[in-house]
Amino acid sequence: MSTQPAIPRPARDLPPATAASVIELCGLSKTYGRGRSAVTAVHPLTLTMEPGRVVGLLGPNGAGKTTVIKLICGLVTPTSGVARVGGYDVGRQRSRAVRQIGAVLEGSRNVYWSLSAWQNLLYFGRLKGLRGAEIRPRAEYLLRELGLWERRDQLVGGFSRGMQQKVAVSAALIADPPVVLLDEPTIGLDVEAARTVKDWIARLARDGKTVVLTTHQLEVAQELCDRVAIIQQGRIVVDLATEDLLNRYAEDRYEIQLSGHLRPGDDALPHGAQVRAEDGSTRIILPSTDATELYSVLGYLRRREARLVSVSQVRPGLEEVFVRLVKEG
Amino acid sequence: MAMTSGAPAGARGAPEVTRLLGNETAKGLWILWSHKVTLVPQLALMATTYLLFQAVLGGGHLVQALLPVTLFAYLAYIVVYVALLKMAAGLLEEVNTGTLEQTHLSPLPSWLLSVGRLSAVLAEGLLTAAAVGGGLVLALRIQLPLRPAALVPLALILADIAGFALLIGGLALVVTSIGAIIHVIGSFVMFLNGGLVPVSVLPRGLEIAARFVPTTLGLDATRRVLFGHETLAGTWGDHSLQWALLHAILMLAVGWAVYQAAIRRGLREGRLGPQ
């Protein structure tokens, strides 16, 4: 029987309490500038995030996502309200709060391109208060896992975009923080690099970490996030478990799957129904249909001796829901 | 896998400060070394500039007696130049690349991060000056008088430079375009601190103005100790050391206040990262 080697982890302080929420935002707001030129990026928002969950913070450009991330990190001071990470007030207990956080920020290199991957991890590890003996095994583990070990001594500036992003992720994880904030982590990455980053996000959640993710790639959010908060013009317009959100916006649209092809003469189907013949089967999508109408169609199909395979409610994708929500404002 | 819910313990106190200073200095030197291809010609250019000005001053010849006097000032200018470059242009580059924000995700207090950055900047400046100075001393067989008493005014020069670098770094965070005139500011220091032309030969008005320029007063006290064979008590008595001390303290205080205010403003306005 083989045993898996232990993952190198630095020594750690315990958080003040085994809180149900690892991130708490209470009435947090941010207004840039003063007087007439004042711009409110984030209106007072209250949000909690549980440990071991991936929370997607979604919204159009300029919605305030990055400001929220930076408020959580303490990289922007709030106009009002409190942010707590691991039970620590980011404003008043900054040192302890930021120990809980690893972040990859949007539009940034995040790491030094004039240093090697190894030097970056040593530097950021020490900056997080770790000793060399704690950093080295952890850095080796991360670089090996992300496929960068062989190139650890090369300057990051010479890496591909995907490899640079992996170094940034490694640097964010060097101190093994319980909270990981990822602002557009897959932007500009090729398919393979994006897949690696996505696999790592899923892995972080399995490892019990709380991941806050902002992305414009909604299929990424749908795939990874347990919960989604949609932010628009600095306000949270929706904050629901991903499943609940998709179910809430599920329409009264049904998809009927038949075996074999439907013979011509299907004029009894409601107006707007789409019939698609596919390899040995037929798919019928009914638009906004109530139960009576659905049973009527099923009765019709029975009379036509169509062989029914399945009937299911059509659920919109996160992208469709997002577009609807943003349009509704 | 076990749930991880804490944070690295890390030590506090003096060892932590030492580790941070070492960490920042190591990073600065690693980055300096990564640019080694451009570093060598840069050092050669600095040495050549000094030689050219000294040759002009000597009417086509190098005046051997003048070289030690001006070399100290020129080396001080090199430290100023590197410090300005790193604290203004370097800082702005870190803002644009997001690494400044990443450094502020450290649990270490902001003042300690500032001290770390400053120590790295000074170490880079001193190393660069040592390389240029060492090369010139060996090539021209310049006899530099070395007296332990000179360490006091030299330390004041370094404090002066540190304060000036913090001041310019802080201003650069607020007025980003200042990065474009760093070379002008550096040249201003070079011409007025006695690096190329002894301050004593400057017109009266410029001579007075030169006293407000970083490093000038410290260099004056250093020259009195090294070349005038004055004791520290003597330089204190003739007020040259007192003025140098006052200038260094004021420069450090103003620089520190401006830099810390700029960091606070950056955090308030979210300007420590790419816009």
Describe the structure.
The complex is a heterodimer of chains A (329) and B (275). Chain A is of the alpha/beta class. Chain A folds into two domains: 23-247, P-loop containing nucleotide triphosphate hydrolases (Rossmann fold), CATH 3.40.50.300; 251-313, Alpha-Beta Plaits, CATH 3.30.70. Chain A contains ten helices and 15 strands. Chain A starts with 11 loop residues before the first strand and ends with a helix. Chain B has one domain (38-269). In chain B, 72% of the residues lie in helices and 1% in strands. Classes of the chains: A alpha/beta (329), B mainly alpha (275). Chains A and B meet through strand 1, helix 1, helix 2, strand 7 and helix 3 of A and strand 1, helix 1, helix 4 and helix 11 of B. Strand 1 (12-13) of chain A pairs antiparallel with strand 1 of chain B, so a sheet runs across the interface.
Quaternary form: heterodimer
Category from helices, strands and their pairing of chain B: mainly alpha
Radius of gyration of chain B: 20 Å
The counted number of beta strands of chain A is 15
Report the average pLDDT across residues of chain B.
Answer: 88
CATH topology of the largest domain in chain A: Rossmann fold
Query: If you average the pLDDT of chain A, what whole number results?
Result: 87
What number of structural domains do the residues of chain B give?
A: 1
Instruction: Tell me what portion of residues of chain A adopts beta-strand conformation.
Output: 25-35%
Shape of chain A: globular
List the main descriptive attributes of the protein structure presented here:
heterodimer, A: 329 residues, alpha/beta, Rossmann fold, Alpha-Beta Plaits, six-stranded mixed beta sheet, four-stranded antiparallel beta sheet, 10 helices, 15 strands, 33% helix, 26% strand, B: 275 residues, mainly alpha, 72% helix, 1% strand, disordered N terminus
Explain briefly what this protein structure is.
The complex is a heterodimer of chains A (329) and B (275). Chain A contains 10 helices and 15 strands. Chain A is an alpha/beta fold and 329 residues long.
